[in-house]
Amino acid sequence: MRTDARKTGGAGLSAAQRQRAVGAVVAAAAGDALGAPYEFQPPVVDSEEVEMIGGGILDWQPGEWTDETSMAIVVLEASLAASDGHDLRIETAQDHIAREWYSWSLGTPDIGTLTSQVVRTAADLARESGHYAPRAADFRRAAEAAHEELPASAGNGSLGRVHASVLPYLLSSEDDAVEGIEAVCRLTHVHPETLEACTLWGLAVRHAVLTGEMDVRVGLPRLPEGRRAAWGEWIEEAEESSPVRFRRNGWVVGAFQAAWAAIVGMGPIPEGKFAQREAMVAVLEAAVRAGYDTDTVACIVGALTGAALGPKAVPPEWRRALFGWPGYEVDELWGLVERVIEPMVDESGEDGAA
Predict the structure, then answer these.
(1) In the chain, what's the furthest Cα-to-Cα distance?
(2) 10 within a domain of the structure (yes/no)
(3) Lowest-pLDDT range, 193-197, 203-207, 241-245, 343-347?
C-alpha cells in the first residue's frame, strides 16, 4: 500500500535538513552550469583554470544550466502538481512530466541521445493516438522500444536528475523513495544498470540530506542480490581512482564512478563555511576536469555534495550567475525546493538532526 509522500510519522525536517535539500538542487545546477562549456571536450589539464565562463560547443551563457537541471525542475514542479501528496508515482504527476519534458525538448539546444530518441518516439506514439503532446504511457513505451533497439545502451541521463525525484520522499519509507526514483527513471531509461545507479545515487542524496553524510553504499541492499557485488567493485574502483580515469562517462556506470571518485578525492567533509566552500569548488572542478560529459558528471557531483553541505557551500558569485530554462534564477530554484519540502518541515523550530 502506498503512503502519502509527505507523511513523516514524527517530527518533520529540521532547519539543517531543509537547507541540505535546497543544497542538492542548487549545487547540482552549479555543477551543471560549470561543466556546460567543457562538454564534448577532452579532459582539462591541471595548468588550465576551470571557470563558469560559458561558451563551449553549444555556446552557453555564463551560469546557464543545461538539460540536467531543466528536466529536474520539471520533476520538482510535477510533485507540486500531484494531487496525492507530492507523489511522483501517480499517473497525473508522470503525465505532467511527460508533457513538460516534450515542451522543453522543442527548444533546447542540448538533450541526451537516448532521451532525445525516447521523446521523439513518444511524440509519434501520441500523434498516432490523436494527442498533441505525449503522456507518461507514451514515454514508457518509447523507453522500452529504445531499450529493445539498443539493449546495451545504459545512458546517464536519469542519473543527472535523480536528486529531484527523491526529494518528495525524504520522510517517506525507503520503499516509497525507491519506487519514486524508478517511476521517473523508467520514463526514459529502463536499462538495469541505469535503474541501479539511480537507486544508489538517489538514496545517497536522501541519506545526505537527512544525516549530512555522503555514502553511496546505503542503497546497496535495495539492488537485486546478484548485482550488489558488481556495484561494490565499481564503487571500490572509483575510490581508488581519479575522475579522469572514467572516460566513458556517458555510460551511467562511468558517470557514477567519475562522480564518486571526485567526491572521495575531497576527503572528509571539512568544518566551517569557507572550508566547505573550497571543498565544493574543488570537487566540482575535479568532475569537470574529467572531460566529455562534463555537465552531467558535475551535476551529479553537485547533487550529492550539496545534499551534505547545503546551498551556501556554492560560491555566491556562482549562485548569482545561475539561470536557465524555464526562465529561472537561483531564487526560483531555491523557492521551488522549499515548496516541495514544505509539508515535511518541522514547525517547532527545532534544529533536529544535523
Answers:
(1) 57
(2) no
(3) 343-347
What confidence tens digit (pLDDT) does each residue in 235-276 have?
A: 999 999 999 999 999 999 999 999 999 999 999 999 999 999
For residue 299, give its domain range: 15-344
- Decide if 71 is inside a domain: yes
Structural domain total, the chain: 1
Q: What is the mean pLDDT of residues 218-235?
A: 97
Task: Give 134 or 346, the one with higher predicted confidence.
Answer: 134
Any idea what the CATH number is for the domain that residue 241 is in? 1.10.4080.10
* 3-state helix vs strand vs coil in the chain, percent to 5: 60, 5, 35
Report if residue 9 sits inside a domain: no
Could you read off the pLDDT of 288-298 as tens digits, one per residue? 999 999 999 99
Contacts of 219 (CB under 8 A, 6+ apart): 199, 200, 201, 202, 203, 204
Q: What are phi and psi of 2, to 5 degrees?
A: -75, 145
Query: Is 301:246 a contact under the CB 8 Å cutoff?
Result: no
* Residue 2, in any domain of the structure: no
Instruction: Write b or e for each residue in 182-219: b if 16 or more Cβ atoms lie within 10 A of its Cβ, otherwise e.
Output: bbbbbbbbbbebbbbbbbbbbbbbbbbbbbbebebebb
Residue 106 CB neighbours (<10 A): 8
